[in-house]
Amino acid sequence: MSTTTAIENKPYINVTPLIDVLLVLLIIFMVAVPLKPSRFAAKLPAPPDDQKMEPNPKTLVVTIQQDRGLRLNSLPDMGSIDDTAKLSAALVKLFRDRAVNHLYRDEMMMRLDLPEASRIERTVFIKAPRSVAYGDVLKVIDGIKGAGANPIGLQIDNLN
Q1: Alpha carbon 15 to its chain's center
Q2: Tens digits of residue pLDDT in 61-83
């Protein structure tokens, strides 16, 4: 008997047809991408109705006037951009009165787990004309932060 050795068959994968299929798919996708509709649908808010709304009595608005003077809501002569001490003192007194009267933020009314000092309404908005330099507005923001206001917002509607 003769001994025959079995020839081992090694598998051979022919990748040429796979590359052809890959190139065809690449061409199909390159042609199909420009045909895809590419538009961005944005939902815009409705225009405001002309109803007069009463301002919230808790709202504090610091207005920077053209002559660099400051106003707090309807109180005139609260200092100037360069000297915010009068405004800061008025805000400190106002925040102290709010703490005594328990005037809380609306969302913090029932949060008994937080300390009372963090529940007090201390939001202040700043309204300034476009002609005032941003550095001057920052001086006012620093004075308001020193009084304990948090958060501070910039009012951008109906600017002069």
Answers
A1: 54
A2: 998 988 889 999 888 888 888 88
